[in-house]
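User
New here, explain this?
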Amino acid sequence: MKNLFNMILVLIIGLIFINGCLTVEKKEYKVKITGPNSGKGTIKYINIVSQKDDGKDVSMKDFAELITDYIEGDKIQNDFPGIKNVNKRIFEEKGVLCAEFTFDFDSLHRIKLFKYDKDSPYMLLVKESFNNEEYVESNGEYNINNMPIVFWNKNTKDFSWKTKVATDSTNIISLLDQYKSWEKSKKK
């Protein structure tokens, strides 16, 4: 199970961390259970930025790769075996560049949730699930002093959690200008 969690985490982070130069300020995860082990998921990336590579601005390259491989390409579908009906979008919100993808899943493990049996609570292992992300909040119960796990009542159907990604704010470049230029070029 730990391997599956790690694989899913790497794949989710892959949307933003292309070649290690792209990062985000924060992420929001939402999951809705629609069947015994199936449901719908959404991951929103807030404030997508490019980190300088040895002091060099590589934001144009990073933005091009984000669009061609992830937004317009099929990299997400290839990286996430078992999810389906993937919808992707990139947009401006509150003055920053955001991306979001939604998907359907047929196993709780695909979205990092665990439930031992029908009488157990739902659980999310924070430490292993958020490799380079810091847990911020959720609609579940979390106490880092006792155990790095978020718990939800066994009857919960809607789950949400937020994380932040540590970034060096002096070494980043917003991709919002590249996005605006790209949007403008699509309208011609």
